[in-house]
Structure formats: C-alpha cells, structure tokens
Amino acid sequence: MDEALLEERLTHSVIGAFFEVYNTLGFGFLEHVYVMALERELRDRGHTVAREVAVRIMYKNEHLSTQRLDMIIDDRLVVETKSTHQLHSAAIRQLFNYLKGTNLEVGLLLHFGPEPKFYRQIRKNVQRNAPESGSAQPRANTRGFSVPDPPNPPHPPPKS
After folding, report:
1. How many domains does the chain have?
2. I need a surface site. Which of 2, 41, 92, 117 has the fewest CB within 10 A?
3. What are 68-109's pLDDT values in tens digits?
4. Does any domain span residue 12?
5. Which residues pair with 57 in a beta bridge?
6. Is 93 a member of any domain?
C-alpha cells in the first residue's frame, strides 16, 4: 500500500475537524480548550476518541516509563495537539515516539498557532503479527491502561 494513502479517509476527517475548531475558536486559547472542542467535533463526525492515553515505554521487556498522548482516533490514528505561538522543533519527534509506543503507523500533529498547521507522520516498518484466522490487524489498546511496545529484533553489532 502506498504510504501516502495510509488512513487517508480518517486523516482527512480529522484535519477537517481541526480546521472547523480553529475557524470557530481562532488563535489564543490554551491547548486543553482546543482538545475538548476537537474531541466534540470528532465525536459529532462519528469517530471514537480516546483521550490522555497512557502508553508504556518498554526496554528489553521491562517497563521504563509511561507517557500520555493527547488522542487516539478510531484505534488507528495518534493525534498530538499544540497551541503555542511557535511550534517547538521536538514536537514531530514526540509524535514519532508516540507512534512507536502504540505500534500505530500514522499520526497527526495539529498546531493551533497564529496560522493553523498540521503535520502528518508515517512510521514505516511497523511490526505486525500475522493475524490468526478471523482476527484483525493489531490496533492500539485504548480501553486498558497502556499499550506495550512490541519486542524489536536485536540490532546487529556495530562494524569495527
């Protein structure tokens, strides 16, 4: 599948909701105001919204930390929001790390700044378990406390 088309309908709907919220509220509110409005707009559009999702960060099958991300939409899309005057350069990295922590492929960074902007992040080479008969592809577990990072194959030793 062409990565530019991953979750195209879903991201299109979320971006439309983002612009609806921005056009209604404008610039200047705190992030939580935009997140609450975005959640309502997304639910009105028929989406399932999980907020403040706790993601467990694992290292060699040991729990290191827990991070909270803003939203997961329809168990398939990570959404991170910012409402700063200038977007910090680490925001895209933060979104990518959330994708790794949830094992999801697509994320959106929505910036409610002086000019509304969005950034789409694709995580390539997502580890997928072969589905068992009758089961679907793995999805984020937004109903429980956390989503563990899947085990990664060991990296080859550095060349001397």
Report:
1. 1
2. 2
3. 999 999 999 999 999 999 999 889 888 988 888 888 899 999
4. yes
5. 65
6. yes
**Which candidate, 61, 129, 125, 118, places its Cα nearest to that of 95?**
118
pLDDT tens-digit readout, 15-74 = 999 999 999 999 999 999 999 999 999 999 999 999 999 988 888 888 888 889 999 999
DSSP 21-70: HHHHH-S---HHHHHHHHHHHHHHTT--EEEEEEEEEEETTEEEEEEEEE
Mean pLDDT of 9-19: 95
CB 88 within 8 A of CB 57: no
C-alpha 50/C-alpha 48 separation (Å) is: 7
Identify which of 10, 57, 17, 13 has the alpha carbon closest to the alpha carbon of residue 36: 17
Give me the domain span that covers residue 37: 3-122
Rounded to two decimals, what is the model's pTM? Answer: 0.74
pLDDT given at position 141: 42
Number of Cβ within 10 Å of residue 101's Cβ equals 24
Q: Is residue 78 part of a domain?
A: yes
pLDDT for 149 equals: 36
103 close to 138: Cβ distance less than 8 angstroms: yes
**Does 140 map to a domain?**
no
